[in-house]
Structure prediction request, 250 residues.
Amino acid sequence: MRQIDLSGKTAIVTGSGQGIGLATAQALHAAGANLVVNYFDDPDGINKGLAEKAVADFGERAFSAAADVRNTEQLKSMVAATIDEFGGLDILVNNAGILRDRSFKKMSDQEWHDVIDTNLTGVFNSCKAAVESLNEGGAIVNVASLAAVMGFFGQANYASAKAGVITLTKVLSKELARKNIRVNAIAPGVVNTKMGMSIPEENRKVMLANIPLGRFAEPSEISDVVLFLCCDMSSYITGQTIHINGGWWA
Prediction:
């Protein structure tokens, strides 16, 4: 049986101090990859602490890097530091994202722009900063969402951003194919992360009733798919969105 071996490969995972990002970083590192744990440098230092803990747990082949995905210069500096440390870049996982849920009628301009700027423009910025440094045969995985195709109430900003991520993925898969760089997306449903837990309990009950498998996903069930898309077992898969939602299509 073939084993996933990413030894000698280097990966950047944005927003990887917790949740799906952390699970993804752990999966890639366990497979042998060098890891850059990216975080947004919040005023309270919470994200920095989470990222540094993740790096300490890895023990080797990893460092943390502050970079706001809304800031192209910060992203370029992170990529440059990655090249200096590990000598190359092979994998980019665009995971960083935020929620600012509110009904369309009540949603402020700021709430719209905050989510679009982070969840969609942030993916564009990260790809822009990394693409010239990505080694031939590399992989990009963008984290979209079930919301992109379902259009959940109160998520005009989030659903629009994630739908944009899916389409951006298709475009980049065509434009980067000349370098044999594969670009795919995943679209998780509700996951048992801090973000997933922030959904009000009554809403979670309604959501759960629509999932044939009868439960929410664990972060590792999402990161395992990302791992597959980053390795040579998926060498003929590009431009695709893999839905990981327990069968939830109602």
Q: What stands out?
A: Residues 148 and 163 are 4 Å apart (CA to CA).
